[in-house]
Amino acid sequence: MSQDVEPAALIAPTLTPQIRKVMSAGLEPKTFAQLKNALKAIGLSTAGKNKVADDVIRAALQEEIVAGNAFEHEGKKYSNQAPPPSLMEQILKQIGATEKKAALDLTAQLTGAPKPSAITKALKDLVAAGKLFVHGSGKKTTYTKFKPPELPWYESEPYQKSFDALLKAAKKVVDTGKPWEEIQTAVRQSLDATAENTPHVIVEPVVPTPAIVSPPVVPSPPHIDLRHTIREAYDYLCKFVEFQDKLVEIRRLFYETEKRIPGLTVNDFHTELQLLEKAWLIELHEINEVREAKDRHLAIERDGRMFYYLRWK
Amino acid sequence: MDTPVKTADWTTEELEVLRLFKERAPKPNSDRNLSPFDDRVARVANASKSIDCDLHEMHQDVRQRILTMIENVREGKKKSQVLLLAGAPGVGKTHLVNCFHPPEMQAEHGYIFVGGSNAWRIEEFQSQLLDWVVQAVTAPSPSDNKHQLLLRIQAIGFRAAEQLLEQPNHWKAVLARSGGLVSRFGPLARVRNWFRRPSRELLLEMVNKRNEKVFAYFDEAAFSTIICDRFLAETSNQLHRYVMRVLLTYLYPDRNENIVVSRERVLHWLAGHVKDDYFHRRFGVTLELDKKYTQFQAVKLLTHLFSKEVSEALASGGVPTKPRLLFLTFDQVEGRDELFESDDDWMNFFADLGELYGSLSNVVILFTMTLQMRNRLHSLMERQFRERIVMDEKFVLSFPTKAELLGVYHNRVADWIKSDPDTSSKYQAVSNSYLPFTADWITDHAGNQSIRSSMDMLDKAFLKTLGDIVVGPHLDLRYAVNEIAMEQLDADEWNYTVNHLDTVGQLFDVSGDILCNSFNFRIQARTNHELDGIPYLTFRIVRPNESASIMVHLARIGWALKKPLDKLVDKLLKGKNRDRNFLMVVRPTEFNYDAGRYSELFLTGLCPPDVESTFRGLIRIASNLETYSSDPTCYEEYHSLVRQKIEESYLIEFLRFVDERMEAKLSSSAEIEIVEPAQAEMEGV
């Protein structure tokens, strides 16, 4: 073994200026071979007696990476520019902690024009890794960083439709004005008769429980979804200059929420707002110049006052 | 409104505190009950009244932001700024503005609060603004020896004198000469003056001791010229020089006048109230602040005198003179008191204000507006105050938090009873400091709304709850009557007493025994009737152990007089037994009616609103009878109170009338006389 050959670690720092010079010559990342050729072009000996071994170049390159002056890109390429964030990183960055975003909304913001299949794959990987959660289904699928609210059994498949039908029927029965005990007995008797000829599995979802036939037959409305949607609409409106002080017109909020929940009724909207107000989550501010109010039916009128603005606390 | 806490849930100590609260509520010499929440927030906080009972933490972040902005502008770190404080009605805008009013706060943070009422038109803006500024810089009173303007003019005078005396000989040219003496006595006077003229050391000593008499040694005109040259921003502006000259008369009071009169003359001139030629005689030139332009220039000059530039020029000998900023506030009261009616007026106003704002460095302008108004005017304002309107969500005021609301509650109650040590100590001793409510009840029912709405709600609930506390017949009645009167504050005497006979009926139901106790009769039956819309009560009266009875009718008529009365007489007296049928008619206001041959059977009375309120009050406190009965003294007091109130009303005449007629009926042995209608007509009835 020749004692003239210096250890790679000792030579490496002396190569640093040359590597920096080569890297600054072009923005595109270079493979090791390209880098070596470039070094050769500026006078580095890669053959003969004074040749610099690959190990030495690699060691110098590694030093630069550790120092933060060089970066390793995909495909074992190197440059002095940091690699662009990966698709998954970009997606995660775009979705705020409380935001819901559809895949289509995300696509526009992604750099490098990734293919739809790549985006779908990245989203799937993120969901699988537990970094994102899927809300809704089909065209209404959105992705969030928070878990979707757990819906009660009567609002989720396969019971939702049956329960809605039961609810409608129950309302009609309630309107007859018969005492609860009488209704309860009648329902039980009818169900017992049906159960004799029906497989137990099918009957099970509609077996009357005291919770169904007792006075609060109408379960509490599904606030969680509407509430989140209102908040989503509110956050969206707050991006406009006219609502930069976070005080939003209730009528505008209704329109924005309605876009997200087609068929939303004013009554449901108002009920939810009043629940939010009672829970101290929002403030309802009144309008003094009532004559100037637009879409008055969308404002909340109470105690002779018109509440026209909303602010989320 | 549901009752927050049931009476039975209160401890003895709490009940005692609530009784003391109730005793405190009826306002002396007034027919109103006052709760700690009667004063809405805005009215509590003004320059003349303490705001200690309100919570300083409320809107603290906004207050701090405004103070920081004031400091930055005053110190020249920022240009003049415009603030838009917006919020729903009652959210605390005016209260917040008034928080900047106390003189101590102005002194501490180096600003002068300028603002006043909205009762002026756009044409009057300049004169109004000048009035406000003069009023602000001469606060607390123009006759005060230490108001800001006087101190500032004196500081300018002393500084100018110091600068003069710094140069060995320059000051001599500015010394006052006794021109009159010289012309009269010639060289002798010159010699006398020579010996009497002050030395530089003497003048310096006087200046250092801030002795105002030093100015008398300087010639007024020459000294004024020096001051104008050194301290005015626009030294060539003749109007500014004139105004400054007038202000410097503070240093040169008229020898023939009292010093206060001289100073007031300056202020009167600034206010444009002086039309004589005093300053013309004194300065040889006339100028009146009677035009928009001149008034505006005067405002600019006054503002400039407190600027950082002038303050730095005044700082000498390690005695800094703090700059002051003019904090102009335009507090828009909601509704019809809005400052201007049209947007054009607003535009002109912003243009005028923009001129002042653009030319001065030490001004912060604050507008309070409702949300809708802010949205409407913001674009107009932006045109005038380009990029200088501070936009921040903090400037849209929020509702108080739970802690703030409870804090205000506690402070208000403590402030309300602070003049009564006994009540205060008992209140401090009970564990629930939110009596008669609980903390949860307060936040649930009065929370998450504007502070004014909260106060309004708490005011009503507080008074209503105290109404249910039994203290004693007299106080309970007074309290109840006040409450009843407040409930129908807007009703006139006719509307207020429209159901008076129902009230009388209820009164007989609850206190009939006491009413008839002094008389020897009993009401056997009482029925309600109506004759063409005129209500009347019919009482069948009997005497104990006697079978004979009489019918006494009590009717209440409204505005129309003759026709209803004729109808009542026709229906109830005409053709009836004269010793058995009687009628009393009451009305809220006095009236005369000649019932002709039925006058003996007919009586009139007055049922004004206070009688109606008293009757209703008696009905209300009758529900406390069970409690009163537990204490014989209290029970007797209740009885005597009812009798007393009845004796103060027409009802005593009614009862006496009934008694007399009953007596007459029983004692009379005459045959029953029936008046036939035909006969009555013949007799001209």
Low-confidence stretches of chain B: 42-50, 669-685
Choose one word for the global shape of chain B. Answer: elongated
Fraction of residues in helix of chain B: 40-55%
Q: Could you state the oligomeric state of the chains shown? A: heterodimer
Could you spell the SSE succession of chain A in H and E letters? HEHHEEHHHEEHHHHHEHHEEE
By DSSP (H or I, 4+ residues per run), the number of helices of chain B equals 31
How does the major sheet of chain A shape up? Answer: 4 strands, antiparallel
Describe the main β-sheet of chain B briefly: 5 strands, parallel
Helix-and-strand structural type of chain A? alpha+beta
Number of strands of chain B: 10
Number of domains of chain B: 4
Structure description:
The complex is a heterodimer of chains A (313) and B (685). By secondary structure, chain A is of the alpha+beta class. Among the domains of chain A are: 72 residues, Arc Repressor Mutant, subunit A; 58 residues, Winged helix-like DNA-binding domain superfamily/Winged helix DNA-binding domain (Arc Repressor Mutant, subunit A), CATH 1.10.10; 87 residues, Arc Repressor Mutant, subunit A (Orthogonal Bundle). In chain A, 48% of the residues lie in helices and 11% in strands. Chain A starts with 7 loop residues before the first helix and ends with a strand. The N terminus of chain A is likely disordered. Chain B has 685 residues and is an alpha/beta fold. Chain B folds into four domains: 93 residues, no CATH class; 156 residues, P-loop containing nucleotide triphosphate hydrolases (Rossmann fold), CATH 3.40.50.300; 168 residues, no CATH class; 175 residues, no CATH class. Chain B is built from 31 helices and ten strands. A five-stranded parallel sheet of chain B has the order 2-3-4-1-5. A five-stranded mixed sheet of chain B has the order 6-7-8-9-10. The C terminus of chain B is likely disordered. The interface between A and B is medium-sized, with 20 and 24 residues.
